[in-house]
Design a protein that fits this description.
CATH architecture of chain B: Roll
Number of domains of chain A: 1
Largest sheet of chain B: 7 strands, antiparallel
Strand content of chain B: 35-45%
Helix content of chain B: 10-25%
CATH superfamily of chain B: Hotdog Thioesterase
Radius of gyration of chain A: 11 Å
Oligomer: heterodimer
Number of helices of chain B: 1
Radius of gyration of chain B: 14 Å
Largest sheet of chain A: none
CATH class of chain A: Mainly Alpha
Structural class of chain B: alpha+beta
Distance between the termini of chain A: 9 Å
Strand order of the largest sheet of chain B: 1-2-3-5-6-7-4
Structural class of chain A: mainly alpha
CATH topology of chain A: Non-ribosomal Peptide Synthetase Peptidyl Carrier Protein, Chain A
Order of helices and strands of chain B: EEEHEEEE
CATH superfamily of chain A: ACP-like
CATH topology of chain B: Thiol Ester Dehydrase, Chain A
Helix content of chain A: 40-55%
Number of domains of chain B: 1
CATH architecture of chain A: Orthogonal Bundle
CATH class of chain B: Alpha Beta
Chain lengths: ~80, ~140
């Protein structure tokens, strides 16, 4: 999968799961603030990425994933 | 680490519930992410509805106890303290068949989808007499 394709699919599934407009998912936007994630819903995002892309986000890595661009890079380099 | 279909006999050491609220009779670990459990629905079950069938809440409690037992077991295997598990959230819950009557045995398969800190997201499917009756996603928070 090319990175553009990954980004497009990621935006689609995140917007659907967390009920936000796809337009608000911008590369430099903060993930938690944009999707209103709390400690309980964070595990939804991790599960979604695991199921859709086969990439397991390790808990110690989560603090390094602040923006959507960080998330795309993390997933793309591990697919 | 896990022998195939390893049955855990000391469920009471993994979850705090006791009869008549304990909702897991048998707990079988398949691997780190998957387990199965069984529950025979007794006439004294506290989650029976007015028609004598186990309520949706009862099935969900059975799933939650299964998931909590599994998470507790994984902690114990890692040499960590077994903590209490609480239902954090339930999503995509679908009742797909008639709720079980007294005397029916529930069969449940729980899969851990993801874990972040002390919160686990699991998917669960419960069937009875080879008929699926409920599936859902559940978050179990440890406290």
């Amino acid at each position: 999968m090319e990175k553009d394709e990954l980004v497009k699919k990621m935006i689609e599934i995140l917007a659907d799961e967390f009920e936000v407009e796809p337009e608000v998912i911008q590369p430099e936007a903060n993930i938690k603030e944009t999707m209103h994630l709390d400690s309980l819903s964070l595990v939804d995002m991790v599960g979604l990425v695991n199921e859709e892309f086969g990439v397991e986000i390790k808990t110690p890595d989560l603090p390094t994933i602040k923006t959507f661009a960080d998330l795309y890079d993390y997933v793309f380099t591990r697919m | 680490m896990y022998s195939p279909a390893c049955k855990v006999t000391d469920i009471a050491s993994l979850i705090p519930q006791r009869s008549p609220i304990m909702m897991v009779d048998d707990y079988i670990i398949e691997d780190e992410l998957n387990c199965r459990s069984e529950l025979a629905v007794g006439a004294d079950n506290m989650f029976l509805d007015e028609t004598g069938r186990l309520s949706v809440e009862g099935v969900l409690e059975h799933i939650a106890q299964t998931a909590a037992a599994h998470i507790g077991y994984l902690h114990r295997q890692a040499g960590e303290t077994v903590t209490l598990g609480y239902i954090g959230d339930i999503k995509r819950c679908a009742v797909t068949g008639p709720l079980p009557a007294v005397g029916t045995t529930l069969h449940t398969h729980v899969t851990v989808i993801s874990q972040v800190g002390d919160v686990s997201l699991v998917s669960a499917e419960t069937s009875a007499e080879n008929n699926p009756i409920l599936n859902c996603r559940m978050k179990v928070a440890e406290g």
